[in-house]
């Protein structure tokens, strides 16, 4: 099995086009065409993690956080990032990071938090914009069924919980080929009228090249007429943060104790408690203070995230409880998610969960 095979599997659930613009995702170090001896999954790639990969004969590290985030002008080993890069290269170890692509996945980081907390009826808290595209094309009516089915087979026409969705209009198209043309139907130099079907389908943006390649491969015309537009429709399956519901409403203090235990955190910093039972819970792994207004607008009773600053807690305004359980603590189960997923995809291959605790924050 190649490193590329592992990458393809991860990008099925976390396509890189959905990563945030500021991020650095994908294969950071290594050659995707090399064979994989084993995969070590971690949250952060530190030197001890590379040592663990060497010890366990894993030449691919799948690290949630990217070890290379900004540009490196020199690699001399003067800091922990450069030392990790040097050690990985010296030992022929590749490093791949999905980071915010997995943050924005419907089955990613925040879905895992919801599962750990037992939340039901999960919804994306902040849907990512401009992730839905629309294809309009015109095809001879007797070829429409074949083309439509081919587009469906590569993911076209999927909307939320539905697939094979399209809109079709019958009409008559006209065209006249010049001397350089080679028309499949009609004759060059003569205006031809053809009974055609206009097919309209939506598709997620990461499938655009696949959709267009399928269109060109299955359309009978020499010159394919088509339009691709980006829609402003809300994508209910792509975006950051999640909101879900508890099976039974809980007292705020009892729920915070439950969160501390389940999320294995040494400290829960929270805003003033409100006199209301907890039912709707919003979560966002990592640094999530920016989404406090979104959690309030979504009607959450509590918002669980990390890296909340002093003045951010004022934004609760007695409308919501803000709970900061730590950056690492909100994301720590992500590596379990990836191991479980990759183990199911590659049943006869070594996928190893790193035992290194890479949390830089300690509690007294």
List the SSEs and their pairings.
Blueprint: H1 3-13, E1 26-29, E2 39-42, H2 47-55, E3 60-63, H3 80-90, E4 94-97, H4 99-103, H5 109-117, E5 120-127, E6 132-140, H6 144-153, E7 167-175, E8 192-204, H7 208-218, E9 226-231, E10 239-250, H8 252-262, E11 269-270, E12 278-287, H9 292-297, E13 302-306, E14 321-324, H10 327-331, H11 334-345, E15 351-353
Parallel strand pairs: 2-3, 2-15, 3-4, 12-13, 13-14
Antiparallel strand pairs: 1-4, 5-10, 6-8, 6-9, 7-8, 10-12, 11-14
Binding site for a divalent metal cation: 65, 103, 327, 331
Keywords: Metal-binding
Organism: Galbibacter orientalis DSM 19592
Q: And the CATH topology of the largest domain?
A: Udp-n-acetylmuramoylalanyl-d-glutamate--2,6- Diaminopimelate Ligase, Chain: A, domain 1
Number of helices: 11
Name the average pLDDT: 97
- Helix and strand element order: HEEHEHEHHEEHEEHEEHEEHEEHHE
| Order of strands in the sheet with most strands | 5-10-12-13-14-11
Characterize the largest beta sheet: strand count, sense, and whether it forms a barrel: 6 strands, mixed
CATH superfamily of the largest domain: NIF3 (NGG1p interacting factor 3)-like
């Amino acid at each position: 099995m190649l490193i590329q095979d592992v990458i393809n599997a991860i990008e099925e659930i976390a396509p890189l086009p959905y990563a945030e613009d500021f991020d650095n995702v994908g294969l950071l170090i290594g050659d995707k065409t090399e064979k994989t001896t084993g995969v070590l999954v971690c949250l952060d790639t530190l030197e001890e993690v590379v040592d663990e990969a060497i010890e366990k004969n894993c030449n691919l590290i799948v690290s949630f956080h990217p070890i290379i985030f900004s540009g490196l002008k020199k690699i001399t080993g003067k800091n922990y990032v450069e030392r990790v890069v040097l050690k990985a290269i010296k030992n022929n170890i590749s490093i791949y990071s999905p980071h915010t692509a997995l943050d924005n996945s419907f089955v990613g980081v925040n879905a895992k938090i919801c599962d750990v907390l037992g939340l039901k009826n999960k919804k994306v808290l902040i849907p990512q914009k401009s992730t839905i595209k629309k294809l309009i094309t015109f095809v001879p009516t007797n070829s429409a069924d074949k083309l439509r089915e081919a587009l469906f087979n590569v993911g076209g026409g999927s909307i939320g919980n539905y697939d094979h969705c399209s809109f079709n209009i019958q009409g008559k198209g006209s065209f006249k080929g010049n001397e350089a043309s080679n028309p499949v139907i009609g004759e060059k130099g003569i205006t031809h009228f053809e009974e055609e079907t206009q097919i309209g389908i939506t598709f997620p943006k990461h499938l655009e090249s696949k959709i267009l390649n399928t269109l060109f491969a299955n359309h009978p015309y020499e010159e394919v007429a088509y339009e691709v537009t980006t829609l402003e429709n809300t994508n209910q399956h792509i975006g950051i943060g999640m909101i879900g519901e508890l099976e039974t409403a809980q007292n705020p203090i009892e729920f915070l104790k439950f969160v501390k235990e389940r999320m294995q955190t040494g400290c829960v910093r929270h805003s003033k408690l409100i006199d209301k039972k907890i039912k709707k819970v919003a979560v966002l792994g990592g640094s999530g203070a920016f989404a406090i207004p979104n959690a309030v607008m979504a009607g959450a009773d509590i918002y669980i995230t990390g890296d909340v600053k002093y003045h951010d807690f004022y934004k609760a305004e007695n409308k919501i409880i803000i709970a900061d359980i730590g950056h690492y603590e909100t994301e720590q189960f992500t590596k379990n998610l990836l191991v479980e997923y990759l183990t199911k995809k590659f049943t006869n291959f070594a996928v190893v969960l790193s035992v290194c605790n890479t949390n830089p924050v300690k509690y007294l």
